[in-house]
Amino acid sequence: MSRPKPYERFEERYPDLVAAYERLGDAATAAGPLSAREQRLVKVALAVGAAHEGALHSHARRAREAGIGPDELRHTVLLATTTLGFPSMMRAMTWLEDVLNEQ
Length: 103
Known about the structure:
This protein folds into 2 domains: 1-32; 35-103, AhpD-like, CATH 1.20.1290. It is built from 7 helices and no strands. It has helices at residues 5-13, 15-30, 36-50, 53-65, 70-78, 81-84, 86-100.
């Protein structure tokens, strides 16, 4: 998977920091019983909840690469309706559709 250019530039400037950050991510991934598929969906949901457009784009792309279908991703976003509210869910859905329309 290609990385966003800003991330690549940051990594060139601060390689040790990025390496430590990625090790932390690897440790979090390995720390529990969730499958890789479940972890991908959780990451999408967290990006929705945090209202981080770039993170949602990134995690939706990774989920697609892992074989998670568009309807599963849409359902993940739809579940935010009652927790975060309809406007928040709709905002996230537009971000998800950005990624799904790339395919």
